[in-house]
Design a protein that fits this description.
By secondary structure, this protein is α/β, with parallel strands linked by helices. It contains eight helices and eight strands; from the N terminus they run H-H-E-H-E-H-E-H-E-H-E-E-E-E-H-H. It has helices at 2-6, 10-29, 54-62, 94-112, 124-135, 172-177, 239-242, 244-255; strands spanning 40-43, 70-73, 117-122, 142-148, 189-194, 204-205, 210-214, 228-232. The strands form two sheets. Strands 2-1-3-4-5-8 form a six-stranded parallel beta sheet, with helices on both faces. Strands 6-7 form a two-stranded antiparallel sheet. Helix 4 (94-112) crosses helix 5 (124-135). The longest helix has 20 residues, at 10-29. The radius of gyration is 24 Å and the shape is globular.
């Protein structure tokens, strides 16, 4: 009688098995610990597309970087608004693109099981990365930043005019972005710029429809205080981000070796 009373019954086993199964399923849903290098997230610029990063991704992979750790975000409506705070058809605000990058980063970390990522940007993509890192919580997951052909200090610098333009170095967006340390403390950051041929880093406005107008910026607008600032002699705006020379700088900054 005692032996029978203590014997597990089917009715008693069912809840125990259900609990055990639920526990196993919960464990299975947790990503495995990340193995390998941090994912690299490439961020394109104004009016551009993720496809521009294809060759740089191939270069990373051919040098041994795992393919599944190379991701390029394709931002919706990638053209900037004339005024960042005013909705404009088929154009995005600085908040729009930074929040898209945040969502893409979260998905990348979940899929790879990594707890941090390196960011590579060109042109407007640089400000998108910085905005996400500084204002969108991205500092907690940022492993490194490589920022090429950027307009950190504006395509032009006009105090009192065009305050809503994200490309005005004296406008609301860039003034706020550059107000604190230009590079967050402890975050390895490399910038890449041209010495003279970037059309968005010129002293006068010949190349942006403002011939002869002083823009109050210089060739060094892509540099950041506190960063490792590199110069590619003779490079144009795109070559600062997509050339073999730019790749060599990016790879060493992220992989830690030539």
């Amino acid at each position: 009688m005692n032996e029978q009373r203590n014997r597990p019954t089917r009715r008693r086993l069912a809840p125990a098995l259900a609990c055990a199964t639920a526990g196993l399923l919960a464990l299975a849903a947790v990503p495995a610990a990340a193995e390998g290098p941090a994912p690299v997230i490439f961020v394109h610029g104004d009016s551009d597309t993720a496809g521009l990063w294809m060759v740089q991704a191939w270069r990373f992979e051919s040098n041994g970087y795992p393919r599944d750790r190379l991701r390029a975000v394709d931002l919706d409506r990638p053209s900037a608004r004339s005024d960042d705070g005013v909705p404009q058809e088929n154009r995005s605000s600085t908040t729009d693109v930074a929040s898209q990058l945040g969502g893409f980063t979260a998905r990348t970390l979940i899929e790879t099981g990594a707890d941090s990522a390196a960011f590579v940007g060109n042109s407007r993509g640089c400000q998108t990365i910085r905005n996400y890192v500084q204002n969108g919580g991205g500092r907690h997951v940022a492993d490194a930043m490589v920022l090429a052909g950027c307009v950190h200090h504006g395509v032009f610098n006009f105090p009192g005019a065009a305050q809503g333009s994200e490309y005005n170095g004296a406008g609301r967006f860039l003034t706020a972005l550059n107000a604190g340390p230009e590079v967050p403390e402890g975050l390895p950051t490399v910038t890449i710029r041209s010495d003279r041929f970037d059309l968005y880093a010129q002293p006068t406005g010949e190349w942006i429809g403002m011939a002869g107008v002083p823009l109050n910026v210089g060739h060094d607008g892509a540099a950041l205080e506190g960063a490792d600032n590199r110069v590619l002699p003779g490079a144009d705006h795109r070559e600062t981000g997509y050339s073999p020379e730019a790749f060599a700088i990016m790879y060493e900054a992220i992989a830690g070796k030539p």
